[in-house]
Amino acid sequence: MAKKSKASKITVGNTTINVAAHKGITKETFKKMYSGKFPNWEEMYEAVKAARK
Amino acid sequence: MAIDCTCNNTLRNLGNPDCPPVFQIAKKFIFVPRFDSTGAVNKILKTDLTSFANVEAKIEAADPLDRWYPTAEVENVEDIREEPVRQEFNSGKSIVVRDGFRTNTAFIPLGSTQELDAYKSYGCAEFGAYIVDAGGNIIYYEDANDPDYAYPILVDTDTYHAMLVKATDAEVQMVMLSWQWRQSQRDQNLRFVEASDLDYDIESLSGLFDVEVTFSNNNTGTFDTFTFLITTQFGVPVKNLVEADFIGFGAATADSIYNVSTGLDVAILTFTDDPVDGQYTITFAAQSNNDVMRLNAPIKDGIDFANLSNGDNDVTLT
Fold first, then answer.
1. Do B270 and A34 touch (CB under 8 A)?
2. Nearest CA-CA distance, residue A1 and chain B, Å
3. Torsions phi, psi of B214, nearest 5?
4. ipTM of this complex
5. Shortest CB distance from B225 goes to which of A9, A21, A37?
6. How do residues B116-146 score in pLDDT, each as one tens digit?
7. Distance between start and end Cα atoms, chain A
8. pTM of the model as a whole
9. B224 at A interface, C-beta within 8 A
10. Looking at the complex, does the CB of residue B270 fall below 8 Å from at least one CB of chain A?
């Protein structure tokens, strides 16, 4: 069975996120890194999580 | 025997076609360094001149020595060869000692002082030029020993001059370019590729734009982000850049910036195209206080980003 390819980058709003660079990141770490920078950090985290699956 | 002759010259046939291939007045020049990045003379196969892909590759060449530099459109061009120098004898006989120099003068209407600054730099290096005439033809120099190639016509760099002509009540501001062609460049060796053979509109060719960058948001105390605004040297925002446009200056790592202090490329974690045109915010793994960061990007869409990584435009994280 062919392995499902994962997106290396995703875009949320006008921000492109490097998915590979966030491999294995926890929500707490993500929040710590981005909550002060992006009001929609939770949306971004969910998108990264979905892209990693 | 005239000065252009050799010992075995015979008279040449003088058949004259109904539609002779004649040049029209110059409308644009394409400046080309005399020598490329390998030290070889810059030239191009005549057959390659017909394809836009080949010409675009020249204009966007990564190495400035391999690059072509189309000028803005020029007006009031005069390209005149002086009368030959003659020696008069007591008998009244007059023998040509040498051809006169050919001098080219051209004006760039509405030329800016920023453009003047760029044009002035051409007096500092050996270069030649292809001429684009009013018919869209490309005039080049043919070397009889290498007839498959189109050579730029060599400029006598010592004679090159660019100057600002300020506006008057009757005239707009202009940049005037003048130079003499090298005395070795013989008029009879000039040829052209006809506009009808080109798959592009050569008059629309434009040189690259340089960029300027200003940084902000680099003093957040987190050492993991900064914002930058990129414009051309004329203040026009450079829009629609993406993360993939940036390559680490150190090891050419994709989607990265460069930490000058550590000598390492740093992956871009997020790349935001801000609502302000030409402004972008990036985040990356936290670096150290006072680390110096550098952007680096290759030429894209007529924009030369070399100024980002020349060392004069780094940003310090605090």
1. yes
2. 30
3. -125, 140
4. 0.87
5. A37
6. 999 999 988 899 999 999 999 999 999 999 9
7. 16
8. 0.85
9. yes
10. yes
